[in-house]
Structure formats: structure tokens, C-alpha cells
Amino acid sequence: MILGIAFLIIGWRIWKKEKITLIQDYHYKNVAESDKKPYTEKMGKACIIIGLGMMLTGVIDFVTSTSFGWICFVISFIYGFILMITVQRKYNGGLF
């Protein structure tokens, strides 16, 4: 839950406050100045998706003894990670 909250806060700051410096500099070194707003928006949303998945995992695992929490985590992590890779390729020209 705590790690999920951290991802939510970081994602919100990247998205809404456009704090691109919260991302490693080699990930955004080729991003054009005009693309920084959509880049930070999409990267922030991807972090938020991963954070929500982590939080849901904690809540579901606390309430039940099923593996549905981990299924939520895997789905949100994969979706957020794919979104990050797509954004990196589009705005940075590659992963690094």
C-alpha cells in the first residue's frame, strides 16, 4: 500500500506539476520542449496506473485470501509499463 501511494504521488507530480526531473534524465534527454507536456502527462498517468494496482493489491489481499489482488497488480503493472515504453519510443526516440 505504501509503495502504491508513493507511485500515486510521484505520478501526480509528474503529470500535473510537470516535474520531468522525477524521471531519470536519460529518459527525457531527447524529448523536445514542445513535447514535454504530453510526455509528462502520459508518464505520470502510467505511474498512477501502476500505483493504483499496487494499492488494490494491498486492499484485496487484506480483505480476502484470494489471488485477485495479485492479478490486479500484474494487469496494472503490465499496462503501465507498456504505456511507459510507448511514450518513451514516441517522444524520446527510444528507450534510452
Structure commentary:
The protein is mainly α. The protein has one domain (2-92). The chain is 75% helix and 0% strand. The protein contains four helices and no strands. Helix 1 (2-16) runs antiparallel to helix 3 and helix 3 (36-63) packs antiparallel against helix 4. It is elongated, with a radius of gyration of 14 Å. The protein starts with a helix and ends with a helix.
Descriptive terms for the model:
single chain, mainly alpha, 4 helices, 96 residues
TL;DR?
With 96 residues, this protein is mostly helical. The protein contains 4 helices and no strands.
Mean pLDDT: 90
Q: Name the helicity range.
A: over 70%
Count of individual helical segments: 4
Strand content: under 5%
Query: What is the number of independent domains?
Result: 1
Q: State the total count of DSSP E strands.
A: 0
Rounded to the nearest angstrom, the distance between the terminal CA atoms is 30 Å
Low-confidence stretches: none
Sequence of secondary-structure elements: HHHH
Largest sheet: none
**What is the approximate shape?**
elongated
* Computed CA radius of gyration, to the nearest angstrom: 14 Å
Coarse structural class: mainly alpha
